[in-house]
Amino acid sequence: QVQLVESGGGSVQAGGSLRLSCTASDISDYHMGWFRQAPGKEREGVAGIGTDDYTTYADSVKGRFTISRDNAKNTLYLQMNDLKPEDTAEYYCEADRCGSWIKYWGQGTQVTVSS
Predict the structure, then answer these.
(1) 45-63: pLDDT as tens digits
(2) Distance of alpha carbon 22 from alpha carbon 60, whole angstroms
(3) Which segments within the chain are labelled E, that is strand?
(4) For residues 93 and 22, is the Cβ–Cβ distance under 8 A?
(5) What is the spatial distance between Cα 98 and Cα 94, in angstroms, rounded to a whole number?
(6) How far apart are CA 81 and CA 76, in angstroms?
(7) Rounded to 5 degrees, what are φ and ψ at 17?
(8) Whose CA is closest to 113, among 91, 82, 85?
């Protein structure tokens, strides 16, 4: 079982930047991802990174967000630049193993972007 702890959320003005972090006991064998959920909306995928560092992004964040991982530090990152009010949401870290249906989730960290 993997326990995930997010940090780095906060309030910024539009155009600003934040970096989210997600720490765990061991992430090296896991595909990792960031999801977000805004009030009244479904949770959506933001970015993902495989064990081979292959990355994927939602169209809405391409060119603005960067996902990365540091297996030595057991930490996942999400660098968010040029933030927009529509990026306001609770952001969740997720981990899963290839071939397994089990997903592990962090408790979430709030990101608020004001115009």
Answers:
(1) 999 999 999 999 999 999 9
(2) 21
(3) 5-7, 10-13, 18-23, 31-37, 44-49, 55-57, 65-70, 75-80, 89-96, 103-105, 109-114
(4) yes
(5) 13
(6) 17
(7) -130, 155
(8) 85
